[in-house]
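User: Fold this; tokens only.

Assistant: Input:
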Amino acid sequence: MPLCGVLNVDKPAGVTSRDVVNHIVRIVRPAKAGHAGTLDPLATGVLVVCVGHATRLVSMAQEGRKRYLGRFLLGQTSDTDDNTGNVVEGGDWQHVTFDHIASLLTEFTGCVDQVPPQFSAIHVQGQRAYELARRGETVELASRPVEIFSIRITQFSPPDLELEIECGSGTYVRSIGRDLGSRLGCGAIMTQLKRLGVGPFDIADAISLDRITAATIHEGLQPALKIVSHLQRRHLSAEEVIAVRRGQSISDVLQSTDARSDGIIETVDRRIALVSPDGSLLGIGERDPVAHRLHPRIVFPD
């Protein structure tokens, strides 16, 4: 039977996210694999890898809140905003205090406009920004709205600073350090980054890459349903499964037992997780509030 599900991988430093996926692809062929949210080679921690038909949910896996632990060095700047680039002296950091940093963190929380790093995967005129930066070209990157839910200082031993950050998709932790260093007047570069979680996937449950083999992959493969654990669920009858597989809509009658596991029913998101009688994810439906119907949008093969 083809593999289908999601892996919570603890990515080691020094390898790319693509390297991790390539390792898994060699194991799961002919099934596909794809990661949800790139980690730079410098970074470690949670990398969500979707396998088989679950790759159709990669974009939904990326929607989960991200949690990071980042370390920064005050008094330095670089073209990459971390210690992998051309590092130069910034300003004097000896005047910076814990309270000074804490007082500035509110400026970086909420819905904020953030300029991505020059060395990033942002597309600029059909090319990645890092490709242009490597050629020595200066790129004017437009700021983008991102959501940062919280930032707290977990350690401060000047000039080293450690921050725990919870943010939405598209946020660059390197940019947070760069901009905070600018506000402090001394500059700052990121020296370490560990992703602690993505949505329901936590570092405590992550599997090291060297433990994922053809013999052990089933042990770490989690149901695709976990990817959409934030969605309301609709448990289908055998007849409704047939209808959905034919691309037909079904009635939007939500039983009380179909609420999320935490008991919360959200009405803003019209997407519904369609669950087969055996408890597995069949696909994703979209609520039509006018017709009171659920239209299948993603349907896994039988």
